[in-house]
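debug: dumping io for the single-chain case to check the tokenizer round-trip. Nothing else runs in this session.
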Amino acid sequence: MLLFALLLAAVGGAVGLYFYNQKMPSMASQKAEMTLSAAALYEAFEADEAAANARYLGKIVAVEGQVREVSTLPDGTIKVVLDTGKDFGVLCEFDPNTKHQRTSFEPGERLTLKGECAGLNFDVLLARCALVE
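debug: decoded output
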């Protein structure tokens, strides 16, 4: 019985390690499930967060808007905030698994980014973003 439990634990650990080390596919190769403006996405969360979570959370969304702010984290991750006309915006964190053709953006520039919607935390968060050409 003890041998069976140890064998089961070893197999479970190996499977867990395999999935932990798997890389996510590049966002650049993923197809957006929907496209909308940064203002429309933010307004959906502001009006009814539960309904917006049901509609957008975990989905790949392409968002068009004007760059409000750009920053780079110490690990090199690029973050772009798209303006919504409100105090908060749509925060797009670039995908570290994707080689980006462009990594510098200017405030005021209009562009479309796609990423996985991660919900509302002051800004609407999009993870693993890539530029839509």
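debug: round-trip ok. The helical segments are 2-21, 38-47, 49-56.
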